[in-house]
Automatic annotation (TrEMBL):
Pfam families: NUDIX. Residues 36-180 form the Nudix hydrolase domain. The keyword Metal-binding applies. The keyword Manganese applies. It comes from Sporichthya brevicatena. Its cofactor is Mn(2+); Mg(2+). This is CoA pyrophosphatase.
């Protein structure tokens, strides 16, 4: 797709995709080929919701994982999962998983770029974020309740609202940026990626980094 065909609000993300480096993700480490981590991919799917006639209502698709899953139970996340042998790389894996989890129509998704592969050592995954534009949004829902508890169309305006931002400490001792949006507390890997994307795209607003809470 030619750049002129993209909506103007998407320009910061397109520019970002061409320049971002693993070091830009801060404490998230680049995946190492010899680490034995399983290749996986997540879909960072942005779009402008014009259904209410409000310009600039940029959103991103998130899910909340089922509470009894083996890894990251109950956590908010980007759609995604393991790259299967039948997948032609992380882009196909991210789209396939998003379809399986939310029922979206992949024909309406325009992939912009793959971002640097990151290590999610706590669960043994090497994760490739796939940046995409939802050119033609379609209905979404939890397809398999054993994997997905809910699907969320989260406003970027809510993510960057300082009132919704904080730092959390997990019982493991891990510190993470966090967002309280749409009835979710987004933290961990998903929050780290969101934090960096919002900052590097120039969308971040100043927030109280001293506001910290414990997580159960």
């Amino acid at each position: 797709m030619n750049r002129v065909e993209l909506p103007q609000w998407l320009a910061p993300l397109v520019d970002l995709a061409g320049t971002i480096q693993p070091a830009d993700f801060g404490p998230l480490l680049p995946a190492q080929p010899s680490s034995g981590e399983r290749a996986s991919a997540v879909l960072l799917l942005f779009w402008e919701d014009t259904s209410q006639g409000v310009p600039g209502d940029i959103r991103i698709l998130l899910i909340r994982r089922a509470s009894d899953m083996r890894n990251h139970a109950g956590q908010p996340a980007f759609p995604g999962g393991t790259v299967d042998p039948t997948d032609d790389g992380p882009v196909e894996a991210a789209l396939r998983e998003a379809v399986e989890e939310t029922g979206l129509d992949p024909s309406g998704v325009e992939v912009l770029a793959t971002l640097p592969e990151l290590s999610l050592a706590v669960s043994g995954f090497a994760v490739t974020p796939v940046l995409a534009w939802w050119r033609e949004p379609s209905p979404v829902r939890p397809v398999d309740r054993a994997e997905v508890a809910s699907v969320h169309l989260v406003r970027v305006a809510d993510l960057v609202d300082p009132a919704n931002r904080l730092t959390v400490r997990h019982v493991s001792g891990r510190m993470s940026p966090a967002f309280d949006v749409d009835g979710l507390r987004v933290w961990g890997f998903t929050a780290y990626v969101l934090d960096r994307i919002l900052h590097l795209a120039g969308w971040e607003r100043p927030w109280d980094r001293d506001r910290a809470e414990e997580m159960s």
